[in-house]
Design goal:
By secondary structure, the chain is an alpha+beta fold. It has a single domain, classed as q2cbj1_9rhob like domain (Jelly Rolls, Sandwich). The strands form two sheets. Strands 1-9-6-11-4-3-2 form a seven-stranded antiparallel beta sheet. The longest helix has 21 residues. It is globular, with a radius of gyration of 16 Å. The structure holds 2-oxoglutaric acid and fe (ii) ion. The site of 2-oxoglutaric acid has 9 residues, from strand 10 and strand 11. Pfam families: 2OG-FeII_Oxy_3. GO terms for molecular function: ferrous iron binding; L-ascorbic acid binding; peptidyl-proline dioxygenase activity. InterPro entries: HIF_prolyl_hydroxylases, Oxoglu/Fe-dep_dioxygenase_dom, Pro_4_hyd_alph, Pro_4_hyd_alph_FE2OG_OXY. This is 2OG-Fe(II) oxygenase.
Length: 209
């Protein structure tokens, strides 16, 4: 379980920058077990192509978003999923205490991006009826090399200028155990293609309706 220093530095970075990157947020052992389960679910065809928009053709959707996902079912979680879930609940409570974010619900899924797949630039919350406040991603890839690609490219709104060619972004590589959180409404981001399978757990904390 991450200690309170992790929660504190996450809250401070969120408050200052609107996002936080926390290496080693989960232990190598937990990350390994989660990766094992994600791979097993993939082999058992439990991960399915993620959805974008309604009625869009499969081929078209895949150009926008190529990951395969499986939601955690809070009523039927494995031991390792429960361990991860409990850490996210602890993080949620800590952020509520420190930043008064009013985070209530949490939903999360495994995601596997096969080689060459991507998720084009998007925002996780774009409609007013969407209650998502905070996006989180935790990566599950041992020995990731930057030359293998697969960065999360986070566009930093506070630093943008009027000239699109000088857009400011930060690339975050999907190293095992690293946690990223960012304000869902503020940050456009994309997942760049990689040369190997890219495993993660993505999730969202929402306000009460
Ligand atoms: O895997 C990532 O780094 C980000 C995934 C993402 O943007 C999403 O699932 O909405
Ligand atoms: Fe996203």
């Amino acid at each position: 379980m991450p200690n309170s220093d992790y929660f504190k530095s996450t809250a401070l970075a969120l408050q200052r920058d609107g996002y936080a990157v926390v290496p080693d947020f989960i232990t190598p052992m937990l990350a390994t077990e989660l990766a094992r389960e994600c791979n097993a679910q993939n082999l058992a065809s439990l991960l399915t192509p993620a959805h974008v928009g309604h009625g869009m053709q499969r081929q078209h959707a895949e150009l926008i978003r190529g990951d395969h996902t499986n939601w955690f079912n809070p009523l039927a979680m494995s031991v390792v999923q429960t361990a991860f879930w409990d850490q996210m609940q602890a993080l949620r409570r800590s952020l509520n205490q420190r930043l008064l974010l009013g985070l209530d619900a949490f939903e999360t899924h495994y995601a596997l991006y096969p080689p060459g797949s991507r998720y084009r630039r998007h925002r996780d919350r774009f409609r007013d009826d969407d209650l998502r406040v905070l996006s989180m991603v935790c990566y599950l890839n041992d020995d990731w090399l930057e030359s293998e690609g697969g960065a999360l490219r986070l566009y930093l709104p506070a630093l943008q200028t009027d000239a699109p060619e000088t857009e400011i972004f930060r690339d975050i590589f999907p190293h095992s155990g690293t946690l990223v959180v960012f304000l869902s409404a503020e940050f456009e981001h994309e997942v760049l293609p990689a040369t190997r399978n890219r495993l993660s757990i993505a999730g969202w904390f929402s306000r009460r309706a």
